[in-house]
Fold this protein.
Amino acid sequence: MTRVFHTFPLMVIFALTLANPGVALAQVPSWSEGILTPQLGCRYKKSAGPVRLLSVASKVRLIEQVALTTVTLRVHNSAGAASAVDLMMPVASGATIRTARASPGKDLKAALLNEEASRRAWLRASRWTSSSTFVEFYGFNQIFVPSVSLPPKATILITIQYEQILMRVDSQRLDYVLPRSESNDQIPWTLDFRVTSSKAIAAIYSPSHKLSIARNGVGTFVAKLGKRSGLEPGPIRISTLLAKEDSVSATLFTYPNEKNGGTFLFFAGVPKKTKAMKARSQRREITFVLDRSGSMRGSKLIQAKEAALQIIAGLKDGERFNVIDYSHSIDSFRGAPVIKNDKSIQAAERYLNGMKARGGTNLSDALNVALAAKPANGFLPIILFLTDGVPTLGVSEEQELLTLSKDSNQFGHRIFTIGIGFDVNAPLLNNIAVQSRAQSVFVTPGRSIELTVAKLFRQLEGPVLSSPKIEFFEASGQRSSRCSALRPSQLPDLFEGDQLIILGRYRGTKPLMVKVSGNFCGEKADFRFRFRLDSKDRRFNFVPRLWASRQIGFLIECIRRLGSAPESAEGVATVHLEELVDEVIYLSKKFGILTEYTAFLAKETTDLSKNDQLNAVARKNFIDRAIKTRSGRSAVNQELNVNAQKKQSQLNYKNWHCDKSLNRVALGGVKKFSDRAFYRRNGSWIDSRLVESPIKLSKSKVILFGSREYKELVKELSTGREQGCLSLPGDIYIKVGSDVFKIQSLTNKKE
């Protein structure tokens, strides 16, 4: 079956009647003691003041196309006398004020400043406070509340509620944005987002922040921002994708570059299964391959057995299963997978209870036996392969095992690998999984094997689209070669509730047809979508950064694979390694996306213009760790980082990753705004586009913060939503077009 869906440019712009008329700047009173902004806290003309913003709680109710946003500020006045501050809150265009209140039950006089008045107000606030942070919101409308009074030694709540109508994109997508600072992460935020639609919703997605998302029925989703995500900077973006009945829905985000092309993010969601879809869905055939070598003795084997029993019990009627267990020898519950029923469950339980841990680890023969089983017609074959050590019997070399798992997999088994502890060959398990369209999971000491396996199994509930494939065509129907560097290059199976996110590059501006095909609920199907590429809109500046993150993850995985051959530890393919490292360094510097191997780029003492030296340091890091380290705690930590990087779907402002001790760490010294990165050097911030040409810095044109030239530069950068970088403290070197500017802060002004 084939379905064609067309996406269209926006044809209608909704006009809103403002609840409060726009106010010219001249009508706004002079600043009170300080300026309070939810995204930035409280700023004073001189040093710090008594008013402090403690936290911000946001609640969004999106019903059909109308979004009602409630922002509650918890504010404390530490002074022994009453204080007054002016509230300035950026909002998206088209917003209207519903209410403005301060506890206990006091109505506030709020005005919605129009676009021009807002621009002037943000610049004026920056100048008045000598704080460049306010220029981040230049170009945004704002809600202005003058002289909010705070009692002495008291904490009050200030609540602002506003409404906006969201316009449909691609006829299926609604984009919601909550403006926030990219430079400030000191104020904890919470978010309670609920979307309700009379039409079915395929998925919701945030490219900016990690959300916990739950589906409450066909047309309702609830999303929350966790504590950790609440301290991440940047605007909160949430896109809602409507479902097509009994079909796949998709949309496209594009970010044009200065040349003829750009970067894209293809986002697809599968619908919640209807009864008809469930009736014809592809059923699963699960084979649990269990390590019973001597090292599994005790609680590990007990938990593994319990995990196997849970999986068997969790299968649906009519689905099939088998258990293969291995040490120095290979045994199995049955010669081939059997139908799940009461009788087979009881027999499997007796078999598992009789299992004892002893002997070595013959991983290769266990793989051969599992892969040799021909799946029943119409079933999706899934292997859950569990081990706690490196191979000690049979084939033990990493590259041979990878080749075996690929060449022997003639029936297309998905091999989900589960590594227990730190003694496993981590890259081997990861690569076995990846090349079979599956994923690897690592259970570190102290974590429950049973719970980890159960969580993985829940994710494999009901395959909706298996063996998916994406292709691109021109409007004429001819196959297109205008899309490249797709990440991921091989698509995973989609299960109920899954999202498909593909990033890549495109050339040209002509329309493009995207075809997604595969086994859709037991039937071969393809879904076609037509997208326009001629937009010059640069709002979606998260797209190139997400693509670069995934590309770096892909390159690191390629480097890790160089260590799979026994001679690679010392005699690595030098030319190939150098090409990979060169590209990692280039992308890392350009986008400010740093990993455990390239963290040294953020050090102030690192000369980013010395490419040969940078590549030499990175090459040594990759050889010592990525190539030579195959097992142990530091091998597992690398696989966790690589997997996260390859699948990254949200921005990582602080370059969070796991260190060698599996601690979560961030990297300072680099800041990211829009598609730019800035490195701290000698107290100044240097645009990544200038780090390789130090001579240009000495010839830069000096612009003083707050000057007329400064205002003109803010205006120019705001056309591409890039003005946020000017909020950095201290002097800033930036490239705009072919010009290089030095933004000199007031504190560094030379008399």
